[in-house]
Design goal:
This protein is of the alpha+beta class. The chain has 24 helices and 17 strands. The strands form 6 sheets. Strands 1-3-2-5-6 form a 5-stranded mixed sheet, with helices on both faces. A 3-stranded antiparallel sheet has the order 9-10-13. The C terminus is likely disordered. It comes from Glycomyces algeriensis.
Length: about 700
C-alpha cells in the first residue's frame, strides 16, 4: 500500500497516487524487506526535477512496472532535499559504481541499506529489464551481491577525502601556540587551476552543461583582493555579464534558472532554486556599483525572491519546477506568432532586442528563450515590451512551486538579502531577511537548540538538520547582527558538539543521527559551498563579530585539515579556499596595525567586494548600513557609507580567449538525466547485470 499521501514532503506527495507501494525511508520499511527476504528499491529525487517527472510518468505510474516492483521489492521514495544525508550516501555509491551521478537516482540495496547496484534515469523498457535482472541476481547470486555491496561501501569510504593531521600540542601551563599562517602558494595554485578551466569567451567554467559556480567566483573575488590580479576580477565580471544577458536569467521577471544546457548560457534548465538565486543575489550585490546592468539584475533578483519565493509563514520556498503541465519551459518560451500576438508591430523590434532569430529558433518546436545580447537603444520601448510580455506570460499556466522551507537555503537567502540591503538601503529586503530568520528561530530550532532541516506550512519535519543547515543559518544570523549574533553562536556550539571529527574537520551528519552505511564527510562544493566550508566561514565570521579567538582557531583547523583535498581538487573546494583567503587577510591585519584592509575596523566591514572606483577598493560598512535600516533609515541615511560607482566609460574586462579550457569535471546520468557537478572516481563492479543493456 502506498503510504505517501499524508507526508510533509511535496516530492513524496507527488507519488502518492502511483500504483507503486511506496514507503518512506524508515526502520519499518527496511524490516519489511528483511521479513519478505527481498531487496530494497530506493528512488531518490526532488519535486522540481524534470527527469524525475519523466521517470515517474513512464514507469512509476505504469501498472506493469508497479506490479514488477511491488511483488519483488520494498520500494522507498526519498526526497533528497529533505534527507540530504541519504542522498549523499547513495550518490557516493552510485558514482563509485558508474562514474556518474544525477537524479532521479535509482539504488538497489540489501535490507540493511547496503547498496549493490545503482544508476540514475532508466527508460521504461530498460527499467523493466533491470528489475528482472536484479531479481534474478538476488535469487541466484546472493553471495556475489553481498561481496559487491561490501566492495561498494568500502570503495565509498576509501574514495572519501584524505585529510591532514592538524593536531596542535598545547603546553599544560600556558596558552596554545598561534596557528601557523595559511600557505599563500596553495591559494595561488588554486586560483591558477580555477582560471585554467575558465571560459574566456562566455564566462563561467568549462563547457556544457554550465553552472553558475558561485563558490568559485567568490574565491576569485577574494584572491583578487589579495593579489591584485586583474584576470581574476575580469573573469568574475565577464561571467556576471554573460549570465545577466543570457537565457539562464529570466529577462522578463528576474531570477536565475538552475543551469544552462549550453556553454553560452542561452537555453536554461528552467527550474529556479532558492539557493542559486540567493548565491547570485550575493554576487550581483557585490558588483552593484560596477555597472547599471549588474545593479538592475541585483534589484530584480531581490524583488523576485521577495515576490515569488516568499511563503505565507514568512520564509522562502525551495524551488519552482522546470515543467509546466509536463512540458519543460512551457511558461517561459516564445514563438514568433506569440510575440506578434502580444506586441503587434513592435514584435520584430523586440525580437531583435531579445536576441531572437525568428528564422532559427533557439529552443524546441519553433520557440525561443529570450536573451539580452546588448543594452537596447530605446530603453523605454524595451521596458514597455518587457511589461507586456510578462503580463501575457502570467496569464499562461505556471510551474509548480515547492513550498517547503529548507533551513540551509533560507540561511543563504537571509545572508544575501542582508548584503543587498547593506549595499542599496532597501529596507524591505532586510525586513524579509529578519522575518525568515524569525520563522527559523520559531519553527526550526527546538528548545534543545537542535535544528530541523525542513518545514512546511509552519510545521517542522522530523528530518534533522545537517551540517550545512547549522552553518548557513548561523551565517545568515551573523549577517543580521544584533540579537541574532547570540543565536548564531548557539548554532555554532551545536556544530562543535555534534558534527566535529575532533581533529578539526566536520561530518555532514550529527553524531547522534541515524546510522547509515557510511557517515558522510565531504569538503567538495556543489552549487553552494560545502557544509564544511560554510561551517568554517561561520566560525571565522563569529570571531570577527565577537573577538573570540577560539572561533578563528576552529576555522583555521577546518581549512588545515582539508588542505590535501584542497590542493588536489581546488576547483571543487573553492568554498574552503575563500575561507582561507579570509584567514590570510585576518592574519595580515593582525600582524600590521590590528586593523583590516582600507582602514576598516573589523572583518564584517571588510568583506571582499569585487568592485572598483576612482579611489581603488571601496567597501561598505555593512553593519552600520543594517543598523540604519533597522532603525527606520532610508537611502539618504547612508551618507557615511561608501557606495562604489563606476568610472565613466569603464567596462568589465574579459579574460583572453586563450585562457579557456575544458578541464572542468562534470557528471550526468546515463542518457537523459538531471546532472550534478561533484568530483568523483569510479570503481569496477563484480556483478554485471548484462540484461540491462
Amino acid at each position: 500500500m502506498n503510504e505517501l499521501a499524508g507526508v510533509l514532503s511535496p516530492y513524496l506527495r507527488q507519488h502518492a497516487q502511483n500504483p507503486v507501494a511506496w514507503r518512506q525511508w524508515s526502520a519499518a520499511a527496511l524490516a519489511e524487506a528483511a521479513e519478505r527476504d527481498v531487496p530494497v528499491l530506493i528512488s531518490v529525487g526532488y519535486s522540481t526535477c524534470h527527469w524525475c517527472h519523466v521517470m515517474a510518468h513512464e514507469s512509476f505510474e505504469d501498472k506493469t512496472v508497479a506490479d514488477a516492483i511491488n511483488s519483488r521489492f520494498v520500494a522507498i521514495k526519498v526526497d533528497r532535499e529533505e534527507r540530504p544525508d541519504l542522498d549523499a550516501v547513495y550518490m557516493q555509491a552510485t558514482m563509485a559504481i558508474t562514474g556518474q551521478g544525477g537524479w532521479p537516482m535509482t539504488v538497489f540495496a540489501f535490507p540493511d541499506g547496503t547498496p549493490f547496484f545503482a544508476g540514475t534515469y532508466f527508460p521504461k523498457t530498460h527499467f523493466l529489464r533491470l528489475l528482472d535482472a536484479v531479481h534474478t541476481a538476488w535469487t541466484t547470486q546472493r553471495e556475489e551481491l553481498a561481496h559487491q555491496g561490501a566492495a561498494i561501501v568500502e570503495a565509498s569510504a576509501r574514495s572519501g577525502p584524505a585529510f591532514a593531521d592538524v593536531t596542535v600540542a598545547c603546553p599544560l601551563d600556558g596558552p596554545c601556540p598561534p596557528a601557523p599562517p595559511i600557505r599563500t602558494e596553495l591559494l595561488d595554485a588554486a586560483a591558477a587551476t580555477t582560471m585554467a578551466s575558465a571560459d574566456g569567451v562566455n564566462g563561467g567554467f568549462g563547457g556544457a552543461p554550465k553552472f553558475p559556480s558561485v563558490p568559485a567566483l567568490r574565491f576569485l573575488c577574494d584572491a583578487y583582493v589579495r593579489t591584485g590580479d586583474e584576470r581574476l576580477l575580469g573573469h568574475v565580471r565577464l561571467t556576471a555579464e554573460r549570465m545577466a544577458r543570457g537565457g539562464i536569467y529570466d529577462q522578463l521577471e528576474g531570477g536565475f534558472a538552475r543551469y544552462s544546457v549550453d556553454a553560452a548560457w542561452t537555453v536554461p534548465h528552467f527550474e529556479k532554486m532558492l539557493y542559486d538565486n540567493a548565491e547570485l543575489l550575493w554576487l550581483y550585490s557585490r558588483l552593484y556599483g560596477e555597472d547599471a546592468l549588474f545593479a538592475r539584475v541585483a534589484d530584480e533578483t531581490a524583488a523576485f525572491l521577495l515576490e515569488r519565493f516568499s511563503t505565507e509563514e514568512g520564509a522562502f520556498a525551495a524551488a519552482f519546477d522546470a515543467d509546466t503541465d509536463g512540458v519543460e519551459g512551457l511558461t517561459y518560451v516564445w514563438t514568433a506568432a506569440e510575440l506578434e500576438s502580444v506586441l503587434g508591430e513592435d514584435a520584430a523590434w523586440a525580437a531583435e532586442a531579445f536576441g531572437v532569430d525568428l528564422a532559427n529558433p533557439n529552443f524546441e518546436h519553433g520557440a525561443n528563450v529570450l536573451e539580452l545580447p546588448r543594452d537596447p537603444r530605446e530603453s523605454a520601448r524595451w521596458e514597455a515590451a518587457r511589461h507586456r510580455l510578462l503580463a501575457a506570460r502570467r496569464g499562461r499556466p505556471q510551474p509548480g512551486r515547492d513550498d517547503k522551507v529548507v533551513a540551509a537555503w533560507n540561511g543563504l537567502a537571509i545572508a544575501a538579502l542582508a548584503e543587498y540591503a547593506s549595499r542599496t538601503g532597501h529596507r524591505d529586503s532586510l525586513l524579509a531577511a529578519e522575518q525568515a530568520a524569525e520563522l527559523l528561530r520559531r519553527v526550526h530550532i527546538g528548545a534543545d537548540g537542535r535544528l530541523a532541516r525542513v518545514s512546511l506550512g509552519g510545521a517542522a519535519s522530523e528530518a534533522p538538520g545537517i551540517l550545512e543547515d547549522y552553518a548557513a543559518v548561523a551565517l545568515g544570523f551573523l549577517r543580521l547582527g544584533g540579537d541574532w549574533t547570540a543565536r548564531a553562536q548557539g548554532l555554532i556550539e551545536q556544530i562543535r558538539e555534534h558534527f566535529t571529527d575532533f581533529e578539526g574537520g566536520f561530518y555532514d551528519t550529527a553524531a547522534d543521527a541515524e546510522v547509515l552505511v557510511t557517515r558522510p564527510a565531504d569538503v567538495h562544493d556543489g552549487p553552494t559551498a560545502s557544509g564544511w566550508a560554510l561551517a568554517a566561514a561561520a566560525m571565522l565570521e563569529a570571531f570577527q563579530v565577537t573577538g573570540d579567538e577560539t572561533y578563528k582557531d576552529d576555522a583555521w583547523r577546518a581549512v588545515a585539515r582539508a588542505e590535501p583535498v584542497m590542493a588536489a581538487n581546488p576547483r571543487f573546494t573553492a568554498g574552503l579556499h575563500a575561507v582561507a583567503e579570509a584567514l590570510v587577510r585576518a592574519q595580515r591585519a593582525e600582524l600590521s596595525t590590528g586593523r583590516y584592509p582600507q582602514g576598516t575596523p573589523s572583518y564584517p566591514q571588510a568583506r571582499t567586494f569585487c568592485c572598483r572606483s576612482t579611489t581603488g577598493h571601496v567597501v561598505v560598512d555593512s553593519k552600520k548600513a543594517i543598523r540604519l535600516l533597522r532603525d527606520g533609515g532610508d537611502r539618504r541615511g547612508f551618507a557615511n557609507v561608501a557606495i562604489p560607482r563606476p568610472r565613466a566609460g569603464t567596462h568589465p574586462r574579459a579574460v583572453p580567449a586563450g585562457a579557456a579550457s575544458s578541464m572542468e569535471t562534470r557528471v550526468a546520468g546515463p542518457g537523459p538525466g538531471h546532472p550534478q557537478e561533484p568530483h568523483t572516481s569510479r570503481i569496477g563492479c563484480r556483478i554485471t547485470l548484462a540484461a540491462v543493456t
